[in-house]
Amino acid sequence: MSEVPAHSAKAVLPLYWQVQRRRNADLFGLFAVVLAFLAAYGFLFPGFFTLQGFAKFTQSWFPLALVAMAQAILMLTGGISLAVGAMVSLGAVIAATTMAGPLGVTGGAAVVALAGLGIGAATGLIVVKLRLPAIVVTLAGSFIVGGAALLILPRPGGAVPEWLSDMLAGNTPAAFALIVLIVLLWKIYLATPLGLGIYAAGENPVGAYRSGIRVDRVLVAAYAISGLLSTGAGLFVAAQTGSGDPVIGTAFTLNSIAAAVLGGIGFLGGQGSMRGALAGSLLLSLMISVMFFLGFTPVSQYVAQGLIIIGAVAIPQFRRKR
Amino acid sequence: MATAAPYLAARGVSKWFFGNPVLRDVSIELHPGRVHALLGENGAGKSTLINLLSGALPADRGTIEIDGTPIPRMTPATAQQAGIAVVQQELSLTGSLSIAENIGLGSYPRQFGMIDYAALADRAEAAANLAGLHEPLSIPVGTLPLGRRQMVEIAKALYRKPRVLILDEPTSSLSASEARILTELLQRLKREGVAILFISHRLPEVIALCQHVTVLKDGVCMADRPIEGTDAAGLVRLMVGRDPGDLFPHWTPAPSLATAIAVKGFSSGLMRDVDLEIRRGEVLGIGGLAGQGQEDLLLALYGAAPAETSAAEVNGVAGLPRSVSRANAMGIAYVPADRKREGLHISHSIITNLLLPGFARKSALELRNRSEEGQVAKDLASHFAIKGDLDRPAQALSGGNQQKVALAKWMSNQPQVLLLNDPTRGVDVETKREIYIMLRQFAIEGKAVVLLSSDTPELVHLCDRVVVIREGRIVSLLERAELSEQAIVAAAVGAETPEAAA
After folding, report:
1. Which domains does chain B have, with CATH numbers?
2. Considering the entire predicted model, what is its pTM?
3. Which residues of B touch A (CB under 8 A)?
């Protein structure tokens, strides 16, 4: 892959955009597969091209997109979270128990956000200060957070104001607009030293530390953002269903890892990009829908999903060997 | 020379790792406009001293001073604010980030809290130009070869406009032209009043470039004086603490010279189309600059990396081993250079480490015999003079004793061919001497010993023959009578001496 000669490219494109363009280089294959699945989906479900159909599709993708980002940001730091699903459940039950009460929607959303940021930051502090493996800390965290969700709301119930459900999960593409907004915020974050530090701290923590990056701070911030994205996904799920369910998030833990892996995020830290993780979550979401339309039974869907993930991860390895 | 306070100084600093002293009461002063050489053998404590000076490690005793003021808790951030930049031997780069993002890492220009990419592009380009780095700044560092990454590391240091520049063996992975660019750059920075600390094993380079020298040996400062009036031999004597010759056992010719391994048209990794014969009863040295393919050669002979050959023979059997277990069965053992990660299971006990190759030979579900194991380990330990309780974890041992464990563990296999990858790196002088005696003893017993070494005196004084590898080819095969440091170094860098040109 010979690039445009350096000097001409330099004259045309500022450094930032050159860097951005190169980050896409490894992802063209994934983007092509996502487009193919989008086309298949549009073919199987022509309603996709109406505003309503588009809105419904993005709504079904939205929570997975958020948890994929929540997982990817931690995998980029070299960590992982097994508490994503529990955090989604917690976000959902907090939303369903606060928003219809005196706190109102704004107050409830603030509690959801604070819970996500606070629990995330606490997890990050434990990982960083005690130098414990993220997988162990978040496994323990998943029990604590999942238990807390059940304490707040022992069985499905609570309520989310109807107008909020209509706004987020109605017939408008609000979910899509939110994704665009979140992606923009992420781009801005990644253009800050704290954000770009995630890559350095994830791939070469000692080198990052010696370069003057405050590795601890970068990691705690990443865990906090990851927590916020997870409980935010929970709020959305509560709005979708109109009520809270203390175990609704369970499947998101493994699906978030699957989406991140499909999107090319590596387990060793610093490998991959958020656009990849988002594309991975979109692909996973599309796969589920397409298989549903093709009449796969739920069980065969799981098997196919697993095979596709293994295949997606193995193909680059084969390519490297040759 | 300078009467003002030094930019950066260490006063009586000491440091211990796992109870082993690595620095004892060392002082050093870095003055503006001076290139200060820090010399010492591998493991003498140079890198540790740098880590103390740059705040990457805290000193256990003693103080670090900046402009004459003691700094109680030095961190990389304080060092950076004081204008101290370090080019580490282990690179501090992030492969997935671009050259520019790496150069600016940790001190990006900002605008509204965000990285100012336009300013970064300008400043990173200026630094890259100084370092002779002309690749597009947007390409990821992970795609660059090692020498170019080293130049990125240097550009990264320059980007910080340092008052104090510390370079830890910056030239070891550089090509000759890259090294020349670096030398010119350092001369220029010196004229601009930067205080430079320069670590290198290449003494001619040091004598040409530096004005002052500090020599460390086993963590103790042996000399701190102007370089004028000293020569390479004098510096070596300070580093080794005796004449280099005394370190090595008396050489005796080999009793038999039967072929142990012979390969023709051998290619693997960087190695291309090489012919080589390894004989029993000899220590065959492998020299050359770092990373020319020497390690690929050893790994392929050991069955750990695939190789292509037009003809190969090991102990009379055709073909190279295809796997490590096959190589072990054929009587080949390999001692890796990185004993912490490859040679030993560092957090496990010494006895476990000693027994591990023996376990591999047993059948999978055979029951262990503890008393026999204990006896085997005790014999090995006493034969190799590994002192103390064998139930301690291997990391409690000093570097030298760890190396002895990494070597000793193979002996229960009765290997006929020993492939050793830089076995004396980071090993103290006394243990070096013990290892040298063992290696000669192995040769006398009729084993073939292959010694890959970055330590040239070792190749000269210990080996029967030395092959020098450059860019994946054997560029020189020196017999005992032709061995000299000059001949090896000249072949390694491609500067043929007049005598050897014939």
Report:
1. 8-243 (3.40.50.300), 258-345+415-493 (3.40.50.300)
2. 0.79
3. 54, 56, 76-77, 80, 86, 88, 90-98, 100-101, 105-108, 110, 113-115, 117-118, 120-121, 135-140, 156
